[in-house]
Design brief:
The protein is mainly α and about 200 residues long. It is built from nine helices and no strands. It has helices at about 1-20, 20-35, 40-65, 70-75, 75-90, 90-95, 105-115, 120-150, 155-185.
């Protein structure tokens, strides 16, 4: 199992950071604490996965705004919220949109549709990806350290850390599946005044 994680863990973190979000990055931090993966490799994989996908979404918003997939994305309430943030706080929003629940996918598309220059987004996107990857990698690393301090530093502590990583993945998959099924049953969520910025 550990050999499998060493070989394919960075790929999983890269894809997870791109398409799922922070869960894969937190698990990567746990694996780094276990010395299964090197910390710098986890950080780089997470940063690259996030930065590359968000830049592709930015390009989609800028170059293919009439494509039906982009048009559908612009009709979502999250897109309108992202545009309002971009107009008010363009630099800080690009640096931090990854941390805002519900706006992860809509944000780079909205930035692409906005007047933000491509070069500025490219630089801020990389900086934001580094901040985001570092925060969640270290969260996983610290969680792994807490497990070791609680259970000791023997073989059993390592096993429990891996079990904790697996538990995080299972819980996130269940939550994602429930949200997906509810969305299909009831349609897109309606924004309430409390959700408005």
């Amino acid at each position: 199992m550990e050999e499998f994680l060493r070989q394919y863990g960075p790929i999983g973190i890269f894809l997870g950071a791109a398409f799922e979000g922070q869960t894969a990055v937190i698990v990567g931090g746990l694996l780094a604490r276990q010395h299964i993966l090197q910390l710098w490799l986890v950080l780089f994989s997470a940063m690259a996965g996030s930065a590359i996908l968000d830049h592709l979404l930015f390009i989609a918003g800028r170059q293919f705004r009439t494509h039906r997939w982009v048009v559908r994305a612009t009709q979502q309430q999250a897109f309108a919220r992202a545009l309002r943030f971009i107009e008010r706080f363009p630099i800080s929003y690009i640096l931090t949109f990854r941390f805002i629940f519900g706006l992860r996918v809509a944000s780079p598309i909205a930035i692409g549709v906005s007047q933000v220059p491509t070069w500025r987004f490219a630089l801020l996107n990389i900086a934001g990806a580094i901040i985001w990857a570092t925060a969640f990698t270290m969260l996983g690393f610290i969680f792994g350290e807490a497990v070791h301090n609680l259970l000791g530093h023997g073989h059993h502590a390592g096993r429990w850390t891996l079990i904790a990583a697996g538990g995080i993945i299972v819980v996130v998959l269940i939550v994602w599946a429930v949200r997906y099924l509810l969305r299909r049953r009831h349609g897109p969520p309606v924004e309430t005044p409390a959700d408005a910025p």
